[in-house]
Design a protein that fits this description.
Number of strands: 0
Strand content: under 5%
Shape: globular
Structural class: mainly alpha
Order of helices and strands: HHHHHHHHHHHHH
Largest sheet: none
Radius of gyration: 18 Å
Amino acid sequence: MSDILLSLLLGLIQGLTEFLPVSSSAHLILPGLIFSSNDLGLSFDIAVHAGTLMAVIYFFRSELALMTKSVFINESINDKYKQLSFNLIIATLPIIFIGFVLADLLEQRVFSEKFTIAVSNLLFAGVLLIAFMKRKANKNLFEITIFGALLIGLFQCFALIPGASRSGTAITAALLIGMNLKDASKFSFMLSIPTILGSLVLLIIKMQASEINFNLIHLTIGFFVSMIFAFFTIKLFLDFVERIGMIPFVIYRIFLGIFLLLLL
């Protein structure tokens, strides 16, 4: 497979899977397992993450503007957006703390990363299924408590395990505290903004510590393809999630986990 085609494929995979509860890391290893393709490197990872970040910021631009306004203008009409901003900050803190404290440990793999990704898919698919089947769905985006935001943030820390799925863990926790499925997904997507931004900073720092060659064409393809497909994935997912539920994603993750185990 040519590197240009691989850039297109990986950008497509990143855009389609970053915000779905299916684990983007599980899908990003598939081209290498199936086609024995090249690793496009850290700079390409930065490009596709930047693309998905731009997509989610643009999609929620109105909400982000209202949240920013609520911080600087003290009016009662802005209170719910101020509380939402605060809850997003609270939900972001655990992964920052855990990621910093366990940084060295996370670099070490007890099992191979491929094995971990496969098993994590199976395990967290089961947890998501339990949360979905027992959901109460009586809270909206603006009814999250500080405790609820903290719980979502703690669950998101499981995304540090390869294959766990950041959006999947956040949605699972949101369902457990009684949020409806659409708003649970919205909160998860908004929470991705500081989380992806933080991971981008770490990737850039890591890149600065070593000499890395990059191909501008590959980076451009990865950035724009991931951005475009991430935007439409968010839109379609929020439009249809209440109709399709989580069962199709649970079933898919189970089959994906088994498939990855068979490829090892």
